[in-house]
Design goal:
10 helices; about 40% helix; flavoprotein; Luciferase-like_sf; SsuD_RutA_monooxygenase; Luciferase-like domain-containing protein
Length: about 270
């Protein structure tokens, strides 16, 4: 069993230490020393005040923050939780992900989802109703950019001719892609596009807000573990919530500054 931790910046307002370089470095390094397999950040570039007041959270940019974490670690996998793919042009995502994977020595996993916050979509100029189609097209573009030269793509939302984007990712043939979501449509995307599945722990009160199917599981604050082995037609693996390893938590406790640990502990208990 492998365990993954998301940076515990899960409140609004956030604890200032968790948004500092020293705080990110401390949590990432402690997670690696404790034996965690991966480390990630959430993705909310323009959340609404209403969502924040209803229990949402502030966030760092996942690509920038993971780049910082990569420089503080040597073996920890870098796994965003998760990148809302329709928010960004897929050529930009492909470049950011390839750069992070290359500079980290092949430690990046691209975990992606369609997103759900309508006001955030509106703020970013993206049609919420088109998010599923944007997602599917974007994954086609990203894989093509990572594996081919002089590519041309003609879709409903994205169009390009003669594109070659180097340097390529360090991972061979490319970084694993994990697909998030609980609905039947999301699970179909896992089967078609994914190297792994990121279910979203969503008890009943959260289902309507997130627009997803309920998966009532251990608290969202628990650590998630997965093996990603899908290549050449093999079946995708599931990333499902699992209880935090007691030994790992004990090791993390001795490595983190007291304020960081206090916030993390509170976040884990809150669910």
């Amino acid at each position: 069993m492998r365990f993954i931790i998301t940076h515990p910046m899960h409140s609004h307002p956030y604890h200032p230490e968790l948004a500092s370089g020293a705080g990110v470095a401390a949590v990432a390094a402690a997670a690696e020393r404790a034996g965690f397999h991966g480390f990630g950040f959430t993705d909310h570039p323009a959340p609404s005040q209403r969502w924040l007041e209803a229990g949402g959270h502030d966030s760092l940019d996942p690509f920038v923050a993971l780049g910082f974490a990569a420089a503080q670690t040597t073996s920890l996998r870098l796994i965003p939780n998760i990148v809302v793919l329709p928010y960004r042009n897929p050529f930009v995502v492909a470049k950011s992900a390839a750069t992070l994977d290359l500079l980290s020595g092949g430690r990046f996993i691209l975990a992606v989802g369609v997103g759900y916050l309508k006001r955030e979509f509106a703020a970013l100029g993206v049609d919420h109703a088109e998010r599923a189609e944007l997602f599917d097209e974007a994954l086609q573009v990203i894989r093509a950019v990572w594996t081919s030269d002089d590519i041309s793509f003609e879709g409903r939302h994205f169009s390009a001719r003669g594109i070659t984007a180097h340097p390529r990712p360090a991972s061979n043939p490319y970084p694993p892609i994990w697909v998030g979501g609980n609905t039947a449509a999301a699970r179909r995307r896992v089967a078609v596009h994914g190297d792994g599945w990121c279910p979203f722990p969503a008890p009943a009160p959260l289902v309507q807000t997130a627009g997803t199917a309920a998966i009532d599981s251990p608290p969202v604050s628990t650590i998630c573990g997965a093996n990603v082995t899908r290549r050449a037609g093999t079946s995708p693996r599931s990333m499902s919530p699992s209880p935090t390893s007691t030994a790992a938590v004990r090791q993390a406790r001795t490595s983190m500054p007291t304020p960081t640990w206090a916030v993390w502990k509170s976040w884990r208990r809150s669910g």
